[in-house]
Design brief:
By secondary structure, this protein is mostly helical. The chain is built from 3 helices and 2 strands, in the order ααββα. 3% of the residues are buried.
Length: 148
């Protein structure tokens, strides 16, 4: 069982997934900071100072030792904005990667086409040389027969 676990862990896709997960967490921290520290204050400025983090519907106010019961929809708004930003940045990343991949594929296809064209040219030249050789042999055989 230990051997199987070691094989599982050492597979490349598991390690790649782990690295991707850690990078995603780090990326999320950056996006959360952008949302909470930059976008929300700006949005609050344009909405007459409303702090979205404090937006809530109080179902039962706090009294004595009992805490307030509230629906904090402001944090939902921040989470939605954070999600949209993460999705947008990932879209830009994938879009850029796809463009680079297509460019590389186009370059490889052009190189392959050029190599195929060169190969066809060489084969055509080889066929032409074979034809010339055959004609010379026929002429040589004809000349030998004419001498007899």
């Amino acid at each position: 069982m230990l051997k199987e676990f070691k094989e599982f862990i050492s597979k490349g896709n598991v390690l790649d997934s782990a690295v991707g997960f850690v990078m995603g967490l780090a990326f999320k921290a950056i996006v959360d900071s952008v949302v909470n520290d930059i976008l929300m204050p700006v949005l609050g400025y344009f909405t007459a100072g409303i702090d979205f983090a404090n937006l809530k519907i109080v179902l039962k106010p706090a009294s004595g030792e009992i805490e307030e019961v509230a629906i904090t929809y402001g944090t939902l708004i921040q989470s939605i904005i954070s999600f949209l930003l993460v999705a947008f940045f990932l879209f830009l990343l994938v879009r850029t990667a796809n463009r680079l991949r297509r460019k590389q594929e186009a370059t490889l296809a052009a190189e392959k086409a050029a190599a195929d064209e060169e190969k066809e040219k060489e084969e055509s030249e080889l066929d032409l040389l074979k034809d010339i050789r055959s004609l010379l042999q026929v002429k040589s055989d004809t000349d030998i027969k004419n001498e007899d």
